[in-house]
Amino acid sequence: MKRNDFAGRKVLITGGLGFIGSNLAHALVKRKADVTLIDSMIPDFGGNEANVEDIKHKVRISYTDMRSFALPYIIKNQDIIFNLAGQISHMDSMKDPVTDLEINAKSQLHLLESCRYHNPSVKIIYASTRQIYGKTKQKPPINEDHPIDPTDINGINKLSGELFHSLYHKVFGIKTVSLRLTNCYGPRQLIRHDRQGFIAWFINRTVLNKEIKLYGDGLQIRDFTYIDDVVDAFLRVAVESNADGQVYNLGGIRPYSLLEVAKILKRINPKLKISKIPFPRERKKIDIGNYVGDWSKIHKDIGWKPKIDLEMGLKKTLTYFRKNLSNYL
Amino acid sequence: MKRNDFAGRKVLITGGLGFIGSNLAHALVKRKADVTLIDSMIPDFGGNEANVEDIKHKVRISYTDMRSFALPYIIKNQDIIFNLAGQISHMDSMKDPVTDLEINAKSQLHLLESCRYHNPSVKIIYASTRQIYGKTKQKPPINEDHPIDPTDINGINKLSGELFHSLYHKVFGIKTVSLRLTNCYGPRQLIRHDRQGFIAWFINRTVLNKEIKLYGDGLQIRDFTYIDDVVDAFLRVAVESNADGQVYNLGGIRPYSLLEVAKILKRINPKLKISKIPFPRERKKIDIGNYVGDWSKIHKDIGWKPKIDLEMGLKKTLTYFRKNLSNYL
């Protein structure tokens, strides 16, 4: 990836005021891209005006929903679409499955149909998720060939979204790439509630000097990708044509148990308390167990690897949220 | 399965005026069930009033869409739901993907959500499809553990529908069973156009003394299930509690090439003409190649096997359509 790969290029970010979208927007403004953000600003999804406050005069912002009939007018001249819009709460998907389907499956079809008819030469990078593997059945780390078996509504609808992107590549020749994300964390993340993954909530508890309640023994294994590494992956696949049509896992430098994560946070903020509680029943039913992703495919194809280790990433994240806390509570 | 298993039981059939739905309705009326049919009657999907003309005073018919807010009132007292409503044309799904998603994914969520809140003890038998396997990667016959990789929009949305049913069993304890159907054929099938599978169209061509145009060499392999065998499978899984939560392939007595099928039809009606044409490009792109299903799991679990061979089934089918042709053109 060269420094000027994005200079002057027309780039659209869906979910552009959200966590990953807004961080991508900052990286692209720095690289002198011509950036448009769209965001439906549905409450609790992650869109936050504070995320783009410092670049708002350097980007175009369109407050709209991907289901809008106006979508063709927004996408028609774009070179690249970073497609981050989504509902990411597993718990919310079980409470309101139809909304999850609307956002994660139907909206994706709208975007792809718009591109099919109004901009078939665009490149689209889609934010998929390791959730589609479900409870893993093979020895970790898990690669992209692992069987698909999502454990919740969100996983099923995200799977549809990814399959739609792959299909539009195969059948209509649209350049699509899907990145299967695992626990991403960093500045500009939604940390206000506990329904968008435990890492966001752990960060909330730490910055507020509160208590982390681990479910069960806290020995569940996960991997983590710091936002700068996530952004790096999105930018790289956007400019590498041999990524077209591919699906890639992201991952972390090494896996951690949730207890280890909590202990790192306690080292950073000794006022944090840690306790253990029984696994809540409605969460246990959709829990995926341990997960460690194999990211060797994207490393081999385009040279990506995670560079920021968890302790360093969490320190940067806490520094950001301490400075900007009022925008995130 | 005992003769009186359905006597007096409240049974709902979604897509009840369609091909499989109406044949099930006839079987259930004979077995003295208390039958309700719902059908959205969306043009070209398969709903046909002629399919239930002779039993219309013995069943309740509700012309409604599964997305209706009235659905809870229809499902709340049912013992069993045969869930046949769907959009089954692969070609149509590629022309109008959003409608396919509405019918095959969103409508299924509406039904399951209704049952979750208003009738959690109901049993649901869902009509899934072998389309979700896509181009098969293993030596035939293909069993239920084959990787999932649908080749078209219809396959992706039908997959969502099946995954939703399995999830509502696992998480909410609703008794669901999915049958992955392969080419079904028989009386009351939609044969008016060529977009609901080649076997329906071959039957149309035969009954009208026209020409079957085989794509390529006509040596593509498929299996076939006659409607009486399909109905038998639905009835059996409905009363067998060890089918709850399961997914089963159906299949045929033996596989045939499309050329063989055409030749059988020509034996039945010598006026039929057979020719070969190049594979149309838009069909080739979503074609699944050869397919033979392994139905040993449902045979082992509940004793089902296909009984009607293809020549016998096609003879019965043609006799029906010759007698009732005006209702199907």
Automatic annotation (TrEMBL), chains A, B:
What range(s) does the NAD-dependent epimerase/dehydratase domain occupy?
A: 11-251
User: One of this protein's Pfam families, by short name?
Assistant: Epimerase
User: What InterPro entries would the database entry show?
Assistant: Epimerase_deHydtase, NAD(P)-bd_dom_sf
State the family it belongs to: Belongs to the NAD(P)-dependent epimerase/dehydratase family.
* Protein name listed in UniProt: NAD-dependent epimerase
Identify the taxonomic lineage of the organism of origin: Bacteria, Candidatus Roizmaniibacteriota
